[in-house]
């Protein structure tokens, strides 16, 4: 079982409501005063701007370096992707050329190509010739 919140059910007295309204108005006035003091001409004097100008330039330089580094990284990633695709394509070319070469160098393919030139495959093993030296 949960307990019912009885504080919200009770009506606030006129005194409590008045105090709450006063505190809210005070907070609003403090906030407005704070914002006015930040953006007043006293705070944003030319001396203050001139004093912080090197820091602002440094922050701008860091921003430019960040942007250029990001562009360089993206260009490098694109180059790596393109080179990866090129490597895959060249690998496929290598495999297809290797398979074609293996097919062309089989004994039957060589025999077919030699037959067009008028050469025939020898059925007997080659004869070994020996040179006999005479003793003189």
From TrEMBL:
InterPro entries reported in the protein's UniProt record: FtsL-like (IPR045755)
Transmembrane parts of this sequence: 48-67
The UniProt record lists the keyword Membrane: yes
Keyword entries, A-Z: Membrane, Transmembrane, Transmembrane helix
Keyword Membrane: yes
Pfam family, one: FtsL_2
Protein name: S-adenosyl-methyltransferase
